[in-house]
Amino acid sequence: MSDAEYARETSALLARIESACDRWLEADVIDIDTHRTGGLLELIFPDRSKIVVNTQPPLQEMWLAARAGGFHYRWDGHAWRDTRDGHEFIEMLSRQASHQGGRALTF
């Protein structure tokens, strides 16, 4: 993957996450505050817990940190896959956000 492709894929992923949180806020589903600084996106839940998603350009990875721990993902050409067991990023983000938000949330 070229640096330009990595930047395009990570930007699209961060925008998708922010967009979902904005839709939930507008629809009064859940109030998740988002704060983005460059390639780092914080999701702050009503109980003040956080999920942090950040890019790792030198490794061409995406990292996810939640209450359950930290996870590293690499692009496989179709999806971001965990470097340990191969689970998909969006599935894990949805699972962790649902747990921390106290309701079913699907990105």
What are the main properties of this structure?
107 residues, Metal Transport, Frataxin, Chain A, alpha+beta, single chain, 31% strand
Which CATH-level-2 architecture? 2-Layer Sandwich
The total domain count is 1
Helix content: 25-40%
Helix-strand makeup class? alpha+beta
CATH superfamily: Frataxin/CyaY
Strand order of the largest sheet: 1-2-3-4-5-6
Distance between the termini: 24 Å
In the CATH scheme, the class would be Alpha Beta
Strand segment count: 6
Radius of gyration: 13 Å
- Overall pLDDT, averaged? 96
The biggest beta sheet, please? 6 strands, antiparallel
Low-confidence stretches: none
Shape call: globular
The arrangement of helices and strands along the chain is HEEEEEEH
Content of β-strand: 25-35%
Question: What is the count of helical runs?
Answer: 2
Which fold name fills CATH's third level, the topology? Metal Transport, Frataxin, Chain A
